[in-house]
Amino acid sequence: MLPCGLAVAQLAAWPGRPLATGEPLPAAAVATGVAVTVVVAAALLWRRTAPPATLAVVVAALTVGTVGVSADALLVISVADLVALYGVAVWRSGRLALGGTAGVALWQCALIAATSGVTGEYPAEVASVVIVYPAVVAFGRARHRWHADRATAAARLAEAEDRRNRAADTERRRLARELHDVTAHHLTSIVVIVSAAQRLGAARPDLAAEARAFASRTGRDTLAALHRLVALLQRPDERPDPVAARLDALAEGFRLLGQRVGVQAGEAQEPPPAATEAVCGITREALTNILRYAPGAGVRIRLATAPAGLELTIDDDGARADGPGGLGSGRGVAGMRERATTLGGTLTAGPRPGGGWRVRAVLPSPSPAVLPPAAGVAVAAGRSRRRPGSAQVIDAALVLLALFAPAGGLLAAPGDAGPAGAPVPLLLLVAAAHAVPVGWRRRRPWTVLGAVAATAWILPVLIATGVIAPAHGWVLPAGLGAELIAVYAVARYARRHDLSALAAAVASASAVLAAGVTLALDTPSEQDIPLVFGAGVMAAVVACPLGLPILLAWLTGWLVRRRRAGIESREHDAVAASTAQALWVAGLERARVAAGLRAAVLRDTARVATAADAGDLDQVLTSARAALDAMRGLLNGLREEASGPARGDHEPQPTAAALPALAERWRAGGRAVALEVRGAGRVLPADVDLSAFRVVELLLAGDTGPVAVRVDLDDDPVRIGVRPMPADAGGEIAAGLRARLAAVGGSTTTAADGLPEILLPGTVPPHPDGIRPDAARESGRGRPAGEQGRAAGSDPGRPAGRNEEVASSPSA
């Protein structure tokens, strides 16, 4: 509507009014003026989408109009360059806005010199250009920050909404990891040890006593761990113990099981609570795997601060021994990797050169870009001292604006300074004293208002004492802009906004009374009117002309403050509501899991220690298996709920072979998806097969337009290309892609067409520490769970009773 309004006002003012009154106008000038008006108004329609081009068109058109039409004819449309420059400042970078300001200001100064000549008024015109154009850009940059703040608030709200939607699943996954740790560390060990003692009881009767002692001690430890878990479910904000102490406690527990565990964690800085939980969870899982596959091996745990972040390394000597298989949940390495990637880190696991096994996790340190509040304020303050920001430019421009009317009038026609010969500089000093306090309007609005109200009386005092002639009293109402700015500042920025209406009353009373006294002092002496009476009459006369603008200034500031505060309050309330909802949902999940633990797991675990104290190994084994079954039932239920509803026939299983079905599902939704798969049918590692599907699914979900997908399964590495790549303004797709690639050792590269291409390893990738990929397949820990079971069952060195015991256990 702004371009249309400017065009209508310009055409009505010129050439409409002269033509309506019958004033003759040159046809060429009319045609030029109308054409310039239409072009400028049309260009301003793109001031948001293409502001630099709009500014260029407006400047060119106004140049033609100034040359082809008289100077005052296009007065209304001539403000279009300010509108276009404001659009550049709002919608483009600060550097571009600064360059545009310099260019347009130079153009305007040159245009004034070319059309009006360099006369005595030229310096004042140049000064107005230097003041107005930077001020317009400063207001535009302030608006730019407002839009940026709103975009940030919208992103926070979207993140909070996403957290709320994922709160239940996230909490289920976290609790599933915790329950898995308890299962692997405690209950599985009891089943293994007691089963072995019963099987070998005839040959080794001493093992029964050791098994009872172990079951009693570990059962109590398990019960204590479960009670702590239930307590943490009720108090999720409880800070954990130091990471070194927790690692020592873990190591001590596994030393009691016969492992030789050393811990070196003194060099590492204390990580955040989330990283501490990840470190302890990864360590517990790694030690459990070592106990299962290499019992008695020496283990070294090292936690240190590295350049890449917090580095956790767990090495074992790899002394293989026949250990029971099939008791794990199949989430060992995957669970450890999930803990690391959740925090943005990486995890690798595989054989070490020369034997043994290594688990290495790197968790990123907190970003150094996130500064403490004091540091952030210091940096901002230093930056503002080096280069003024838009707020400082606006404040300076408002000071000059408040000073412009009185100073301009004095400089344009200084005249006689008065009977006492007071120089014009004194009047300029009075006007400056009245306007300069406006520069502190944001930080001290009430103080600024008091200073402006007080300095309004300097001129009446100087007139009353004869220093300045009464004829110069016009300087007072000319400086009314300072009162307007001060009152607006109080309504907009003052802390006690409920008292801001007093600002309008104070400023109005001061300005009106000062003007009344000034006018009364200018009354001819022959009328012999008392000063107080004359001042009262004159104050009543000027009350409306002076008081109404002040009241409107206060109302404007009050409305702006109310609107902005309402927007920010709604944004804050929406984020708070979503966050509270997420916490409430997560709390429900914790309460549900805690109830499940109390109902079954705690009861059966308590029976383990009681039966062990009574010497009843059969009851120990029965209770341990019952607790294990209850724990795994709760664990599996959490995983199934976290993974969502069961897939129907219309939803493909997440493998590379299901990519055509995935593309067909998108086509059924109305999207054009072209899919080319080379080497279909190739057998890939399970995690790579899943990752190929998830990568394509992630990239397809990032946009809605036509897309071409090419998947080459013949090559090693597997190559995936999506054209065009989806837009990713918020970085969500890039973050998901990094996590997916980190989980399988994938990477990105640039294809021949210059666009990104995703690479996934077609075989098991080599370990960064020199671990052989084929060794991972030869090791039981590098095989899928099914292959481990087959290998264990076909091992000629394994006693037959071991396999039978595992097959008959509940975990089989």
From TrEMBL:
Residue stretches making up the Histidine kinase/HSP90-like ATPase domain: 282-365
SUPFAM superfamilies in UniProt: ATPase domain of HSP90 chaperone/DNA topoisomerase II/histidine kinase
GO molecular function, one term: ATP binding
Enzyme class: transferase
UniProtKB keywords: ATP-binding, Kinase, Membrane, Nucleotide-binding, Phosphoprotein, Transferase, Transmembrane, Transmembrane helix, Two-component regulatory system
Taxonomic lineage: Bacteria, Bacillati, Actinomycetota, Actinomycetes, Micromonosporales
Reaction(s) the record says it catalyses: ATP + protein L-histidine = ADP + protein N-phospho-L-histidine
Name of protein: histidine kinase
Transmembrane annotation, as ranges: 28-46, 53-69, 75-91, 96-116, 122-140, 393-414, 420-440, 447-468, 474-494, 501-521, 533-560
One Pfam entry name: HATPase_c
Residue stretches making up the DUF7134 domain: 393-564
Source species: Actinoplanes nipponensis
GO CC field: membrane
Classification via InterPro entries: DUF7134, HATPase_C_sf, HATPase_dom, Sensor_HK_TwoCompSys, Sig_transdc_His_kin_sub3_dim/P
Biased composition (Basic and acidic residues): 769-781
Region Disordered: start-end pairs: 751-812
PANTHER family: NITRATE/NITRITE SENSOR PROTEIN NARX-RELATED (PTHR24421), NITRATE_NITRITE SENSOR PROTEIN NARQ (PTHR24421:SF10)
Start and end residues of each Signal transduction histidine kinase subgroup 3 dimerisation and phosphoacceptor domain: 171-237
EC nos: 2.7.13.3
